[in-house]
Amino acid sequence: MSTIKQALANRIPERRREIADLVKNFGDHVISQVNVKQAYGGMRGVKGLVCDTSLVDPYKGLIIRGIPIDELADKSAEEIFFLLVVGELPDEEELSTLKQNLFARSEVPEYVWRVMRDLPETAHPMDMLVTAIAILEAQSVFRKRYDQGMKKEEYWEPALEDSLNLLAKLPSLAAGIYRIRYNKGDLILPDPKLDWSENYGHMLGIDTPDFLDLMRLYMVLHSDHEGGNVSAFTAHVVASALSDPYYAVSAGLSGLAGPLHGLANQECLKFVLGVMDRFDGAPTSDEMRDYTWQVLNSGRVIPGYGHAVLRATDPRFKAFHAFGKKHFPEDPVFKTVDVGFQVIPEVLQEHGKAANPWPNVDAGSGALLYHYGIEEMSYYTVLFSVSRAMGICAQLVTSRAMMEPITRPKSVSTAWMKAEVGMTEAAAT
Ligand code: HAX
C-alpha cells in the first residue's frame, strides 16, 4: 500500500464518524438562505457545498487544510498534494515514497501521443490536454473495480489509484503537448533525479534552477481554490455520479479553459503585451491608466483583476510578484505587470463595477513564464491545469472517502419564481 493511501486510510474512520455525528445531530440546522438575485447570479455566496481540502478567505486568500498559502510557498508540489489529500504535511519518508511512486507511474501510453499528433493545428492546448485525459480513461482502475462490484466504503481506494496514475503522467503529457503544438522538437524523457514539478520544467525544455523553482512555485500556488469555483465544482458534480477521475478531471479542466476562469492567464499576457505594443515598452502610470480605461470603455474586462470571492490582493499574486521582483525587476514585461498593479485597482474602483478591484493569481504569472522563454500564451492554462488537477483529485478522493451521494440541487423555473415572489397569482411548477 502506498504511504499516502495508508495515511488517508488511517484517518478515514474518524472523519466518517465526525460527519455522521454532524448530520445526525445538526442535520436540520440552517446554514444558508438563497435569494432571487443569487439564483439568477451564479449562486454567488450560497453555502451548499462542503470542501475540506481548502478554503478561500475573502481577505486572506487561499488556506490549504488550515495553512495560509504564503506559509506553503516554499513547499514542493508533492508535499501540497499529500497535505490536500491527507490533511497534514508528509514526513520525510512519506514524501520520498510519494515522489518515487509518482515517478514510477509517469509513462504516458503511446496511443495518447498518436492522438495528440493527429489533432489539427487549430486544437487549443487545453483541447489537447482535456482530450488526452479523456482517452487515458481507458486505464481507469475505478471503472474496472466498479464493474467487478465494489463496496461504497472502498470507492476512495481506486479513486486515489486513478488520481495518482493521472497526476504522475500530467507533467509528461503537458510538456509533450507543448513540444508537439509549438514544434519544439522531440519529446524529452523525465529525469529520475528530479521531482514532479522539476521534471515538468525539464520536459518543457528549460532546465535552469530559477525556472525549475518557478515551476515548483507555480504548481504549489495553483493547486486548489476550495470547492465552488467552476473547475472544482464541475469535477465534483461529475465524480458524484461515480464517473471515474479521468472523466471528472477532464470535465473540470474544460471549465478551467474559460476566459473568466483559468484562461484569464492567457488573456492577461495578451493585455500586458497589448499595452507594451501601444507604448513601445513598459508604460508609465498615466499610459497604463489611459489604456485600462480604453479597455473598460470598450466593454471588456481587465483580465487578472477581480474575483468572485476574494476582496483583497490575492496572496498568490503577491508570491509571483515577489518572485519577479527578486529575479528580474527590470524585465519590461514584468515591469508592465508592476505598473498595472499600481494603477489598475484605482481605475477599477473609479469605474465602480468590480466588487474586487485587486489582482488575482492570473495577473502576473504569464510575465514570469514569458521571461523564461515560454512565450506561447495559449499554453498557460495547461500549466495551471497540471497544478489544479491536484486539488480536483484531492477533492474527489475526499468525497468518495466520505461516501458523499450524487449531487442534485433543485432548479426552479422563472414562472415558479414569479409566483413565489407574488408577481403572478397562480402557483407554477
Ligand atoms: N474588469 C472589468 N469589469 C469587471 C472586472 C474586471 N476585472 N471584474 C468584475 N467586473 C465587472 C463584472 O463584469 C460585472 O459587470 P456586469 O455587472 O456588467 O456584469 C461587475 O463588475 C460585477 O462583477 P463582480 O461581482 O465583481 O465579479 P463576478 O464575481 O461576477 O466575476 C470574475 C468574477 C473573476 C469573473 C470577474 O472579476 C472577471 O471577469 N475578472 C476578469 C477575468 C479574470 O481575471 N478571471 C480570473 C479569476 C481568477 C480565476 O478563476 N482564475 O482561474
Name a few traits of the molecule:
about 60% helix, 19 helices, binds N-hydroxyamidocarboxymethyldethia coenzyme *A, about 425 residues, mainly alpha, globular
N-to-C series of helices and strands: HHEEEHHHHHHHHHHHHHHHHH
Whole-number mean pLDDT: 97
What would the principal axes of the Cα set say about the shape?
globular
Strand sequence of the main sheet, in spatial order?
1-2-3
- Rounded to an integer in angstroms, the radius of gyration calculated over CA atoms is 22 Å
- Fold-level CATH name of the domain at 264-371: Cytochrome p450-Terp, domain 2
Going by helix content, strand content and strand pairing, the class is: mainly alpha
Number of strands: 3
Written overview of the protein:
This protein has 429 residues and is mainly α. It is 59% helix and 2% strand. The protein has a domain of 108 residues: Cytochrome P450-Terp, domain 2 (Cytochrome p450-Terp, domain 2, Orthogonal Bundle). It is built from 19 helices and 3 strands. Helix 6 packs antiparallel against helix 12 and helix 13 crosses helix 17. The longest helix has 26 residues. It is globular, with a radius of gyration of 22 Å. The mean pLDDT is 97. N-hydroxyamidocarboxymethyldethia coenzyme *A (HAX) binds next to loops.
